[in-house]
Amino acid sequence: MYVAIGKEKLIFSKDIVAIFDLDITSQSYLTRKFLREAEKAGNIENAAEDLPKSFVVCKEKDKNVVYLSQMATATLAKRLQ
Which end of the chain is more exposed for a tag (fewer CB within 10 A), N or C? Predict the structure, then answer.
């Protein structure tokens, strides 16, 4: 099953590792470090047309990919059901 996360981007639901609220988790030093390292490695894709509200961590072909999404975590969770 595919999940639409914004900006016409679809991802496989089986590839999703976690969905995080960007406002809440970005307060943590560890989350900011994780996102910084993912950006340096080129593993962040922006699927948001506006300011992102969440990020989705996926495991694709033996690497982690982080997708920024303008959708709320509750909306993305509902789409997984």
Answer: C
Q: pLDDT tens, 5-57?
A: 999 999 999 999 999 999 999 899 999 999 999 999 999 999 999 999 999 99
Tokens of 47: 């699927």
Residues 26, 23: Cα–Cα separation, whole Å: 6
**Closest alpha carbon to 66 in 8, 15, 14:** 15
- Would you mind telling me the total number of residues written for the chain in this entry? 81
Tokens of 28: 């943590």
For the entire predicted model, the pTM comes to: 0.92
Q: Which of 63, 72, 17 is nearest to 37 (CA)?
A: 63
Domain span at residue 11 reads 2-80
Number of domains in the chain: 1
